[in-house]
Specification:
The complex is a heterodimer of chains A (657) and B (300). Chain A is α+β, with helices and mostly antiparallel strands. Chain A contains 24 helices and eleven strands. In chain A, 55% of the residues lie in helices and 12% in strands. In chain A, strands 7, 8, 9, 10 and 11 form a five-stranded antiparallel β-sheet that branches. In chain A, strands 4-3-5-6 form a four-stranded antiparallel β-sheet. The chains are: A alpha+beta (657), B alpha/beta (300).
Chain lengths: 657, 300
């Protein structure tokens, strides 16, 4: 009696070697190709580098050190790519090994065989997992051999550590993604539905979050559709969470996984999903082969899911297409229409028929639910629109705004504010905006200047609250009217400490000033405006002069609106400083990305004597080059521009800086 | 061997089996007939342990067949629509089945090669003609040495010579090993030659289930002629299912024992009285044709 027969004697066996071997032999190209990719990516790559470096004539010591560094870094650098590759490959493996469930003939043939479903599932599950894990282990062993040959001494330990981390991460990701794919495979009877379900479920949480945010943003004043997902959204989006977790910054000469427990957690979830998949398989109806959804209980979920997603995504798109995204009734109608279409599409997929109008009752219920949801959003029943955090409950607030002139770095672009008093000023502005929502419609007013404000609060529990207001009307005559938006903005721009923070004048001591230049300097000989690049020494002196002028209140003065006062007290000429900052290792993904470059722009003023003095001493300004004041034309341009806007769209927008 | 009791099965609201009951005795060849959509393939898939019934029970050798490896190891099946792995040859499938069926007989596989000389065992089965694929299926199924062979339209696609050979192999299997054969077919003439029991399905139920002998002993075709024109008035308890006339000769299909009917008819002193055997096809037509029109669909 051969060995296969002996294994079959055990009727309670949950594993059948014949099924396992058959799956392995049938789909050998899958695992061979997967192994081939990794073989070239790591051991052959390393070997090739070693040989090329050896041929290039470097010394043994230098060559050995470089190869050791490669042996250490190649596995770690491929972690993120590996996770994505595993995610894609896992579903292919699941499609292969569980493909027999999606065809009536093959499903009947396999289930007529003696093994129980547990044996069918586990044998195929293990085969599919082996498609991923066995090549990884093989590649790790080959890499180990290459490391032993090429790397010596203490570096060998680091190289092997990297290799072990790589193997652990890839196996963990393989366990999760393949189990997840197997879990999805149990819910469908159609082979093309499997990758679709797998892809959708992989991004379901972040997708739903974005869709709801998008809809909320359409209905809710200030709510941002581009809100950054919270930590839980990241964690529930496997590929995002795993790629983020396996980033391996270097600390103290050793590269560590950023969040190793996330990988372990996902591997554990993989085991749980495999167990759940088996449970579903045990109760699966074989006659469901060919059905898009094979588990009857999941069909309503599918129907509602497709309808809601279609309604929210295509509904908002349709409304935006016709320019109705900020009009509640047309927007709601678009959402309902698309949801109804989604409902019937889902019904067609489930019934495999175009005759689905009989499902209209469910569609009516869906539309009623969605209409109520839209109404709740519009009426702000969840209090999203009016939510303003208490100042003392805000850990920090990141501010981006265009609140005042001139349009230099004094308008904050993502400035983090942590000072309680300054936070209070920002919260007061936010509260004024919320209280004065009705005024947001008055951006058409002739005497209104329109501003923009984005707030990202960080609350004590780490949660973030994001609000964006794209068209805040400011009125000069309300500057002293306490509680108004204009008053709150005035308070902010008069706070010199806050403005100093916006300009970032105290925030660059550890950074390197790379360059400084003057924009729109008048060349009196050619009577044209030119940009001048300053030498390093002059740039450094100018930076100090600007800081001194700011201390004396002669530069960085803010103006609420574009009036004569602003025009007469500022030049057109801006001074721009370019700095380079070196990020800490744990904040950068590689050596090159550690160098971050940024600019600070300051509009020059006639009163900034220290700055003017440095410019004169440097010889840049004199007979040929002079700072360009605002001319009568600038006044006219501003006025014309305002008039044009009033004529065309009756909106006066603050000019860009 | 097989006892199916009140099995129901619905597919998306459509009742494919509606309280179906049937019994197949060990060592018998049971023919299952019925119109399209009667539920033949569905009940066969239940008996193979593929489908789980919504209600009712299916016992094979006294044990439930669903998820029962021990029972399923003794069942070999040839479905209407064959499935083999892509690019798998008969030999590959033999290796596969050898690992799954404990009684798989490798020697028999080699021995049966001669019975299927046209089948190239190394050629992918999918490249074989439909008839050869069926031959390959029989070859492999017989090597499993099953206690129960479940066949769904088994000889479709086979040429007449091969049909005869396959039936011969099956009869031999039954005779030598006591294998029970459950076969579904539309071809009543063929079933008549091999089956000892038949069951007729309609609308998910078994309408009739009897041995072929019982069926043939319960209906008789009489050809009678009398001196006087016309038929004499026959007793009311004589169940005449059908009457036809050519000249003075009447052909009567009468339900009951042929000997008894012939004796009773002789009392009317016919000048011609002859009892003729009915084919299975005629039995179905006359026995059930009037009661259920689908029966005619089976044989016409």
């Amino acid at each position: 009696m051969n060995w296969e027969v002996r294994t079959m004697r055990s009727v309670t066996s949950y594993f059948n070697s014949t099924l396992y071997r058959k799956a392995m032999s049938r789909y050998w190209p899958l695992w061979v190709f997967f192994g081939g990719i990794w073989l070239f990516a790591i051991p052959l790559n390393l070997l090739n580098l070693g040989m090329n470096y050896g041929r290039s004539g470097y010394g043994v010591t230098e060559s050995g050190s470089w190869i050791a560094e490669q042996a250490r870094s190649i596995p770690m650098d491929s972690l993120g790519v590996g996770v994505v590759l595993t995610m894609l490959y896992a579903v292919l493996c699941a499609m292969a090994v569980f493909g027999y469930l999606y065809n009536s003939r093959s499903a009947c043939m396999m289930h007529a065989l003696p093994p129980r479903r547990e044996a069918l599932f586990l044998s195929h599950y293990l085969a599919g997992l082996s498609f991923l894990v066995l090549p990884l282990v093989s590649v790790a062993l080959i890499t180990l051999a290459v490391d032993l040959v090429l790397v010596h001494g203490a570096m060998l330990g680091l190289a092997l550590r990297s290799l072990a981390l790589w193997l652990g991460v890839q196996c963990g990701a393989a366990l999760f993604f393949f189990s997840f794919a197997a879990f999805c495979a149990m819910f469908t009877g159609h082979i093309l539905a499997l990758p679709a379900f797998y892809g959708i479920l992989n991004g379901l949480v972040v997708g739903m979050y974005e869709l709801v945010s998008l809809l909320l943003a359409c209905f809710t004043y200030g709510f941002s559709g581009t809100t950054v997902p919270g930590r839980w959204v990241e964690l529930c989006t496997p590929v995002y969470a795993l790629c983020s977790a396996v980033a391996a910054p270097e600390m103290n000469g050793v590269r560590h996984l950023r969040q190793p427990m996330v990988v372990v957690g996902y591997a554990v979830v993989g085991v749980v999903l495999a167990a759940l998949a088996l449970m579903v398989y045990r109760s699966r109806r074989i006659e469901s082969a060919g059905d898009v959804v094979s588990v009857p209980l999941v069909r309503p979920v599918f129907r509602w899911g497709v309808a809601l997603c279609t309604g929210m995504s295509f509904g908002t798109f349709l409304a935006a297409f016709f320019g109705w995204y900020d009009q509640a009734v047309p927007l709601t109608l678009c959402v309902l229409l698309c949801a109804a279409i989604g409902w019937f599409i889902a019904e067609m997929l489930l019934r495999k028929s175009f005759h689905v109008l009989s499902a209209w009752k469910g569609c009516v219920v869906l539309c009623a639910v969605l209409a109520m949801l839209c109404a709740a959003f519009f009426l702000d029943l969840f209090g999203i629109e009016t939510r303003v955090p208490q100042a003392d409950q805000v850990q920090s607030v990141r501010l981006s705004a265009n609140l005042s002139a001139p349009y230099d770095s004094g308008n904050p672009a993502g400035i983090e504010i942590t000072d309680p008093d300054q936070i209070r000023e920002i919260v007061a502005l936010h509260q004024a905006v919320v209280n004065d929502r009705a005024r947001s419609q008055q951006t058409h007013s002739a005497d209104a200047f329109v501003s923009y404000l984005e707030l990202v609060y960080t609350l004590p529990d780490g949660d973030r609250l994001v609000r964006m207001y794209y068209s805040l009307p400011l009125f000069q005559d309300e500057a002293d009217q306490e509680g108004s938006i204009t008053y709150a903005v005035s308070q902010i721009i008069q706070d010199r400490n806050l403005m100093k923070l916006f300009y970032g004048l105290d925030d660059h001591d550890n950074d390197t000033l790379e360059e400084a230049d003057l924009s729109e300097v008048r060349n009196t000989k050619t009577d044209s405006l030119e940009n001048l690049i300053l030498d390093e020494d002059t740039g450094a002196k100018l930076w100090q002069a600007v800081r001194q002028d700011y201390q004396e209140g002669t530069i960085g003065v803010r103006y609420l609106i574009e009036d004569d006062d602003r025009m007469n007290n500022t030049y057109r000429t801006d001074l721009r400083f370019t700095f380079t900052r070196i990020l800490p290792q744990d904040e950068a993904y590689g050596d090159e990305s550690r160098y971050q470059s940024y600019d600070i722009t300051v509009t020059l003023t006639p009163q900034a004597t220290h700055t003017a003095q440095v410019l004169e001493q440097s010889g840049l300004l004199g007979d040929v080059y002079v700072l360009q004041p605002h001319t009568q034309e600038d006044f006219m341009e501003t006025a014309d521009w305002e008039d044009d806007d009033l004529q065309t769209e009756a909106v006066t927008t603050a000019p860009l800086g | 061997m097989i006892k199916v009791s009140n099995v129901t099965k619905s597919f998306d609201g459509f009742k494919a089996l509606d309280g179906l009951s049937m019994t197949v005795e060990k060592g018998s060849i049971y023919g299952l007939v019925g119109p399209n959509g009667a539920g033949k393939s569905t009940i066969l898939r239940h008996i193979m342990g593929i489908y789980r019934p919504d209600s009712g029970s299916i016992l094979v050798n006294g044990q439930p067949v669903y998820e029962n490896p021990k029972i399923k190891a003794g069942i070999a099946a040839i479905p209407d629509e064959l499935y083999y792995f892509t690019s798998a040859s008969t030999r590959d499938m033999m290796r596969f089945y050898r690992g799954l069926y404990p009684k798989f007989d490798g020697k028999r596989y080699e021995a049966l090669k001669e019975a299927f000389p046209e089948v190239d065992e190394k050629q992918p089965i999918r490249r074989l003609s439909k008839g050869m694929q069926k031959q390959s299926a029989f070859w492999l199924a017989l090597c499993c040495e099953p206690d129960l062979l479940v066949l769904d339209e088994p000889v479709d696609g086979l040429d007449p010579v091969m049909r005869r050979q396959v039936w011969s192999l099956l009869m031999n299997e039954v005779a030598q090993r006591g294998t029970t054969v459950l076969v579904s077919s539309h071809n009543l003439r063929e079933l008549e030659d091999v089956c000892d029991h038949v069951g007729i399905l309609s609308h998910g139920k078994v309408l009739l289930e009897r041995s072929l002998t019982d069926l043939q002993d319960n209906v008789v075709k009489l050809q009678v002629a009398f001196n006087e024109p016309g038929l004499p008035k026959l007793p009311e308890d004589m169940k005449v299912l059908h009457t036809s006339q050519i000249g003075r000769v009447y052909t009567l299909i009468v339900r009951g024992s042929p000997a008894e009917i012939k004796t009773r008819m002789a009392a009317y002193a016919p000048i011609l009285l002859e009892a003729l055997p009915l084919s299975l096809e005629e039995i179905f037509i006359y026995e059930l044709g009037g009661e259920d029109y689908e029966v005619r669909d089976i044989v016409l």
